[in-house]
Specification:
The protein contains 15 helices and 5 strands. With 351 residues, it is mostly helical. Helix 7 crosses helix 11.
């Protein structure tokens, strides 16, 4: 891959190649759908649609008598036009518990089912809107009711304990300590950056050295959808990054990884999976009952920012939420707490 391309451009090319392979495994008319939604969706979103649609067509071949003897590539739009609401409802039931192509058990909870039905609705809508289908049973399906999940985040003291553990490595096994000696400066910079800015793990691994602007205290990141923005950091993040860059300058990287900020033990750009494992390794030593992921570090930052500022619109902007209602949903309990605390703030008569 050319080193002149940014990490995000490279990932996008890889995703497009992957998507083309997935589309070849779907009915031939599906290519039109993916071309049609391309201007409005990211390559990652289209890949998710392709996987979801493969599950739907597998269901039709296994469970629908009219299609049982067909190959997936033989399915055409006439077959979809024959489906009714009850067929889509059967598909929702099928999603709860099924076997995949490798004969492994797969279960979907509310959110997994909702995503797959949402994908199917978009799929049907495209062909119905383009007058290639007469019927649109997916549009008549009600999405499953979602039960709000408890937001898991680190408390203030847990954040301090986590960073202390990253720095000291005291609770690690002897084998882990041997690696820790080589990675602790990097790990501390990475964890401090995520906890101090709320950036996504994909945004973190995509950072290049020249994306950091110490003069203005900001980092340039690429949001979901490709938008480039600057996120600002405080002195704790700055100190951790400067310490790491001293070490980083002495590392000879593998080809095409010279620009990358955070490196793996193999001196390549660190992967999302490696960061997920790193967060899990340290956090379970500090909070064994909380399942902490990079996204939970993001929730922790959003909570702290909201508690400090009380400005939900600022939190939405800094976290890169396109809709403030997404933010409100995540921090509803905190909003309610603030409203309750406001009840005695306004005095109607002096006592």
């Amino acid at each position: 891959m050319s080193s002149s391309l940014s990490y995000h451009q490279q990932k996008d090319i890889e995703n497009v190649k992957h998507l083309r392979q997935l589309v070849k495994e779907l009915p031939r008319f599906c290519g039109d759908f993916f071309r049609g939604i391309e201007p409005r969706t990211s390559s990652r979103t289209r890949i998710a649609y392709a996987y979801d649609l493969k599950v739907f067509f597998d269901f039709l071949l296994k469970e629908n008598p009219a299609m049982g003897k067909l190959d997936i590539l033989d399915i055409n739009l006439d077959y979809l036009d024959e489906l009714h609401v009850v067929d889509i409802e059967e598909y929702m039931e099928y999603l709860k518990y099924r076997f995949n192509d490798r004969n492994q058990e797969v279960t979907n909870k509310e959110r997994g089912i909702m995503r797959k039905i949402s994908s199917l609705k978009s799929f049907y809508n495209y062909y119905y809107r383009n007058e290639r289908l007469k019927n649109n049973p997916a549009s008549l399906i009600q999405l499953p009711k979602l039960h709000e999940k408890e937001i898991i985040r680190l408390d203030v003291d847990e954040v301090a304990l986590l960073l202390d553990e990253v720095e000291s490595g005291e609770a690690l096994t002897e084998k882990q300590k041997s690696y820790h000696a080589k990675t602790k400066v990097r790990d501390l910079a990475l964890m401090t950056l995520m906890l101090g800015t709320g950036i996504r793990v994909s945004e973190c691994v995509g950072l290049d050295i020249n994306d950091i602007d110490f003069k203005n205290g900001g980092i340039r990141i690429h949001r979901k959808g490709g938008k480039e923005v600057t996120v600002y950091f405080g002195t704790e993040v700055e100190d951790a990054l400067l310490d790491y860059l001293e070490e980083r300058d002495r590392i000879i990287t593998q080809d095409d990884h010279e620009k990358a900020l955070f490196l793996s033990m193999q001196n390549r750009r660190i992967s999302v999976r490696s960061v997920e494992n790193l967060v899990k390794k340290y956090s379970r030593l500090v909070t064994p009952l909380k399942k902490i992921t990079p996204h939970k570090l993001r929730s922790t930052y959003g909570t702290n920012l909201y508690q400090e500022t009380g400005d939900i619109y600022l939190v939405a902007d800094v976290l890169g939420h396109s809709d403030v209602n997404t933010t409100k949903k995540h921090y509803a309990a905190l909003e309610d707490e603030r409203r309750r605390s406001a009840r005695n703030k306004v005095k109607l008569r002096e006592i």
